[in-house]
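So, could you explain the following?
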Amino acid sequence: MADNNPSIGVIIGNRDFFPDKLVEQARKEIIDLFSEMKINPIILGTTDTKLGGVETFKESQTCANLFREHRDEISGVVVFLPNFGDERGVADTLKLSGLNVPVLVQAYPDELEKMNVVNRRDSWCGKISVCNNLYQYGIKYSLTSQHVCFPSNDIFKKDLTDFIAVCRVVKGLRNIRIGAVGARPGGFNTVRYSEKILQRNGITVTTVDLSEILGKAERLQNTDKAVQQHLEKINTYVPTGKTPSDALFQIAKLDVVLQDFMDEQALDATAIQCWTSLQENFGCNVCTSMSIMSENMLPSACEVDVTGTLTMYAMQLASGSPSALVDWNNNYADDPEKCVLFHCGNWAKSFLPDIKMGTAPILGTTVGVENTYGALDGRTPAMPLTYGRISTDDPKGIMKAYFGEGDLTDDPLKTFGNRAVAKIPNLQGLMNFICKNGFEHHVVMNASKTGAILKEALGNYMEWEVNMH
């Protein structure tokens, strides 16, 4: 879900008793860098202010006006300090602009052979002053991996790439709309959540009764054009194996109605009452539709786990790839750093190279296996792993989360459903943390290493309580 040419505001700090040429050089380097990285710079022209930099209050006003003109485009701001810079100029610009977006502070290094008056930068010191003023003004900001670093350095390019991801997460979560389809299964108190706490954080939940979805699906005919189109989409997406044609039509009809609901409500994600009413009253599983949605970056979570699908969305924003909701399900033999991740069958296709449609054997023991067609079967191979969970802590009235990184492995695993083996450092300590802090048994996995991005976005800018394992 990477942005195509994201727009980033640029502030070039300046201080009048440092060489003008440093600002001129920096502006050219910044524009070249942004072009290389396909970022759209919202930057002052060289005639808008002295050299396009920001120092005086008047220049702050000019830059702030520019940012306000592009406020709907700008997802973040990068402050560049080719010299010491004027800390008030930077802070005033951000305050006057009214932007509430992530800010990255960069500073140029001095070169030992260029410490004379005509080349000296003092940006090392200036960065501290800028950050001090941002702190005083109550403006949130991010730092680079190294205190000073040239923009052309690969280390800074990685910092900038990660910062763009932070901006994507923050912007996405402040505007997300989630559909809660049906009631939480009675046996799943674990997925309770507070709509009011979510709404205070910009997260809107739209509910619909499952009977409305099933009723609309029942009224569709096998011959309807939309049903035929969705049936073709399903057949293209996954080998259907021995799934009977009547079950496939039921799955396709559900798919039509769910897509219509998402389109009507402009939803970014869903959490669905996936059992047992659906199987008992409609005769199929909704797993395939959920998998297709998640693969297409519209994540869908089981058991009306709204904060689970919120986590899926956050993690795909960070990585640009699909996420999957899983159970912390089993130990892996006696290995203290490995466990089995499992769900009965709705993971995005990206996790299941051997994907096939089948039934849900465990659920089938109570509702009849013949009513569970549509579940997916597949094993996730070795790949990078970021895992995590967002939750509303209702007694405390806060949003909280944890994230960590590990690896999915190719260790042998003979079972059914959607399954994976995870290797996580200090897994026992993590389980202890989850249990002591009342987190759900559901966790989200993503094939990336983006834990630090999520911690910065959610902890620093969203101001949630975030633990990084």
Summary: The domain at 7-173 is CATH 3.40.50.10940 (Rossmann fold). DSSP finds 15 helices and 18 strands in the chain. The CA atoms of residues 15 and 85 lie 5 Å apart. The first helix runs from residue 20 to 36.
